[in-house]
Design goal:
Layout lengths: L15 E4 L4 H10 L3 E7 L6 E8 L2 E6 L1
Antiparallel strand pairs: 1-2, 2-3, 3-4
Length: about 70
């Protein structure tokens, strides 16, 4: 994994996981599907930029790179 903000490079295991805030589409999915939506972000250990986001919708993990 590489951070383009500070040029840190290392394995994905070194990323710092923090709870994420729900975005507009998370609320739409939650209301439309009636399922719980949560989000966690993986941050660069050096500069704290978000490098990866995980969304959990009704027990299914949906990953998207940022």
């Amino acid at each position: 994994m590489r951070c383009f903000n500070c040029a840190w490079e290392g394995p994905e295991e070194e990323l710092v996981e923090k709870p994420g805030s729900l975005i507009f589409y998370d609320f739409v999915a939650q209301q439309t599907l009636g399922m719980e939506v949560t989000r966690s972000n993986q941050h660069c250990p050096k500069c704290d930029s978000i490098l990866k986001s995980h969304r959990l919708v009704g027990g299914m993990v949906l990953d998207q790179g940022i």
